[in-house]
């Protein structure tokens, strides 16, 4: 079976071969080193091992993830964690992913310099939505804590936490704890939610979800930033309580707001970033909405720090179904073009990577992450 940049080519009968990641446990003398050489940068020496008396060099992709992503800087890349939900038609191989498999993915994402790992949130799914969204959704906060424990560099995010589902005191405590245990690597991405039956099951008034979201954000600010927090609002009341620990990031972790409505855009302008809802929405529709955000008084001073997280793969770049060398070269070139032209031109600073549908195992997925970091992220940075 041949190799191209770490991808296993199909056997003549069309069946997938074992991936490099799956074969790295092979202990026959000399074979492990041979196979490591098949991946760019995967020689016998570990390139990022600490040496006495000097700091280890970071790979270009990790350096890019640590830079502010503005005009002239590369787009940052996130990974939606496989297996944490069972969206129909996506990550079918990850439906039985064990905890060790998820930890393995997290550690590779961490080592390769991806900016964030993300999880989504639902507590239950209305039956009519199951064909579209599936019924299996792991608890987002629990997954975030698991990811924090398994990694050292990558940021931890949820796209998005549905704020009205939560009591603000409990949520502030959980998120602050994740920020402490991760050493200050928490992103807080939030939205108002859309599943009315889920709201009813949680006893939350669906029609008031926008106002509840705004008030929860106010309570989070108060609990995280004030030594003697006090809040008296329409839905929540906090007073006479000490709140510790505070988040490591000061004055608070960055908050990104999801949604395309005018209230969502104004909410984003008051915070640190915007995540458009890509359902029925295209990259070309972003600029006028981003202009609306920038026109808000609360946006002043954020020109060089505001993030825009677009969750979609470039619409004009088809994901390859096979891993033939020519297909991958064309795929890489078109990705690099999109990520250095159309994405920055519309204001995008973060995006989730697309995954070819032909991937059929954890090992193949990890090979793809290696390839993406070596061929796409390094070219952009």
Automatic annotation (TrEMBL):
Residues 19-29 have a biased composition (Basic and acidic residues). The keyword Ribonucleoprotein does not apply. Signal peptide: none annotated. InterPro entries: Lucif-like_OxRdtase_Rv2161c, Luciferase-like_dom, Luciferase-like_sf, SsuD_RutA_monooxygenase. Its EC number is 1.-.-.-. The lineage of its organism: Bacteria, Bacillati, Actinomycetota, Actinomycetes, Pseudonocardiales. This is TIGR03619 family F420-dependent LLM class oxidoreductase. One of its GO terms (molecular function) is alkanesulfonate monooxygenase activity. GO terms for biological process: alkanesulfonate catabolic process. Pfam families: Bac_luciferase. It is an enzyme of class 1 (oxidoreductase). Residues 1-63 are annotated as: Disordered. Keywords: Flavoprotein, FMN, Monooxygenase, Oxidoreductase.
